[in-house]
Amino acid sequence: MTVVLLVLIGLVVAGVVGYSAYATYRYGRITAMTTAEVLVAMTHRRPDARVSVGIIQDGHATMTLYGEDGKVLPWAEHTYEIGSLTKTFTAALVYKAVGEGRLHLDDHIDQYLDLPDKAYYPTIRRLLTHTAGYKTQYLAARMLGNMLHGRGSFQGISSQDLIDKAGRVDLDDRDYPFRYSNFGLSLVGAVLAAAYGEDYRTLIDRFIADNLNLPQTRIGDGTGDLGHYWTWAPDDGYMPAGSIVSDMSDMLAYAQAQLDGAPGFLTDQQRALAQVNATPARYAAIGLRLDAVGGAWIIDQAHGIVWHNGGTGAYNSFLGYDPVRRVAVVVLANQPPDPFVQATVLGAKLLADLRAR
Q1: I need a labelling partner for 174 at 20 to 30 A (CA). Which of 14, 162, 252, 352 fits?
Q2: What pLDDT is stored for residue 192 in this prediction?
C-alpha cells in the first residue's frame, strides 16, 4: 500500500512539475506573439468564432469583427456574456448608493443582511477589493448538478443560500491577501438589494438603462444570437458576480464613460481601495499587472491601466483603459477562456500598442 501511495504521489508531483514547465513555455510564447497571431490562435479551426474588438483612441471608436483563423468579417453586432465584468457594474451601483447616503464602504454586511450574531463580518470595501478572506466560491451540491446537466455553474443558488453560508464562515477583522471571490461580490449585490429594498436584478437592469444609458446591456435570460447562454432566475445569488450580457456598442460606450468619469461616481470607483500586489505569471507574461483594486476594477499602477476581464462557460471578455492617455480596448469572444490565449491576452497587447503610439 505504501509503495502504491508513493507512486501516486510521484505521479502527481511529476504532473505538477510538467505542467509548470509547459506553462512557462507557453507564457514565453505568448509574450512574443503579435496581436494578429493571438487572434489566429483564439479562432483557429473555429468556424463559429466571433471575436469583437473595440478601440477608443483620439476621441474616436472603431469596431472590428473577426471569425475563424482571425479573418476579418463584415461588421455585425452580437450579444456576448461578459462574465465577471459584471462585477464592475455591481460596484458602480455601490458608489451611486454611497453618493445617495444609502450605505458606506466601511459598513459591515451584517448591518444590511440578516446574519447570526458574530464578532465580525466583512466590510463592503473588503468585498469590493477581494480582501475579505472569502473563497472564490463555496462548493454546493447544486453546482455539481448544474455541471452534470450542462447548466450555468451558479444556477439555482439563491441569495439566501449565500447569506446562510456567510453566517457559517468565520473570518478575522483584517485585510486578507487578495483572493478573487465571486462569493464576496455576490454578497455585495445582496447588500444593495437590502439597501434599496428591491431585488438585485431589478436594481441593476434599471441602473444600466437609466444611469449608464446602455440599451443592449442586461442580466442574461438565455437568449441571444450566438447561443450557449447561461440562464439566470430572479433570485440567483451569484448574479452580481457574472450575469450580464452586452454588445460591442454598449461596452465601448461603457469604456468611454470610464474615460470621461461620467456619471461622476465612476471616477471614484477607479481609485485604489487596497494595495494587493498579486500579479500572477499569466498576466505578467503579457505586461498586465494586478497592483491594486478599486471598486472592483483591477489597477495596474506600473502602466497606468485600469482593467477587468470575464469568463463564463462559453464566453470570455476584457475591458481595459488608460485614463491619462484616454485610450481603451474591449474584446468580446464567444468561446470559453483558454488557460493561455484568450480575450485578456489580446486586449492587453492591443492596449500596450495603443499606449506606445
Answers
A1: 162
A2: 98
Those residues whose C-beta lies under 8 Å from the C-beta of residue 341, and which sit 6 or more positions away, are 30, 33, 38, 41, 42
Residues 130, 183: Cα–Cα separation, whole Å: 10
| SS3 state of residue 59 | coil
Per domain, the residue ranges of the chain are: 2-32, 36-356
Cell of 158: 439563491
Residue from 301, 277, 269 nearest 105 by CA: 269
User: What pLDDT is stored for residue 144 in this prediction?
Assistant: 74
Residue numbers in the chain where pLDDT is lower than 50: 4-5, 12-14, 16-17, 19-22, 25
Q: How far apart are CA 283 and CA 270, in angstroms?
A: 20
- The set of residues, in sequence order, having a beta carbon less than 8 Å from that of 144 and lying 6+ positions away, is none
**DSSP, residue by residue, 205-271:** HHHHHHTS--TT-EE-BS-SSS----B--TTBTTHHHH-EEE-HHHHHHHHHHHHHT-STHHHHHTS
What type of residue is 225?
Answer: D
Q: How far apart are CA 223 and CA 281, in angstroms?
A: 36
- Identify the pLDDT of residue 176: 98
The residue written with cell numbers 470575464 in the block is 310
**pTM (global) more than 0.70:** yes
Q: What is residue 331's predicted lDDT score, i.e. its pLDDT?
A: 98
Range 36-356 classified under CATH 3.40.710.10:
yes
Question: Contact at 8 Å (CB) between 216 and 63?
Answer: no
User: Which of 152, 157, 159 is CA-nearest to residue 203?
Assistant: 159
